[in-house]
Amino acid sequence: MRVLWQPNGGDQFPPRTSITVRQATDLSQEDTNAALVFAIRKLCEALECKVTIRSAQDYDDALDVVYSFHGWTFEEIAACFAMIRTGKLGENFYERFKAPQLNACMREYANMRARHHLRNQAKYMDGIHEEAPATMRTAHQMSHIADLLQLPAPEPKRTILWADGERQQSEQAAAYQAQGQAQEQAAHTRPGGEEGRPVVLQGGAL
User: Fold this and answer.
1) In 20-141, at which residue ranges do the beta strands (DSSP E only) sit?
2) Of 29, 74, 82, 205, which is most buried by a Cβ count within 10 Å?
3) Is the pTM of this model over 0.70?
4) If you ran DSSP here, which 8-state letter would residue 130 be given?
5) For residue range 87-139, what is the model confidence (pLDDT) as tens digits?
6) DSSP-assigned states of every residue in 89-105
7) Is the CB of residue 110 less than 8 Å from the CB of residue 66?
């Protein structure tokens, strides 16, 4: 646990070599509390905020925040506290640093660490893409897998505009068909008589 107040060599995302907070509490709850309280106090002294962690209740709240990240190692806690102290985490505390601000900084560090691990894994994706989770594969790799499995191409998504286009096409086709039938019927029927019979004009009409 001495790693909490020892320099971490500038490594923002150290390897997970030490025990986690949960494992430390299983060994000794009292020693773990003492180490964490000491680290929190040193952090607050370095920040020099006017409203900060001072009372016993404040330290209890801060410990609750740290214990909510019980899967972290002590190197990771030390790296997170070092980034808070140097201004790399937390934009502006406005002279206030208590449990809520500590929680926000630790969550921000967790997100940064996750992105860092994803970038490192992406460097080796081309060689081990068959073992990587599907959510981490690139679109090119997924299309290559689809070609190997001979999967059918995905159908385009049918939207409201798509349905309107199909309806307009069907209406136009019906209109063209009706017009063609009318023209065909007009061609077979001569004007002036029934069923194509010519009209015979009588002499009196002349």
Assistant:
1) 51-52, 96-97
2) 74
3) no
4) T
5) 888 877 888 999 999 999 999 999 998 888 787 776 655 544 444 555 554 55
6) S-S--TTEESHHHHHHH
7) no
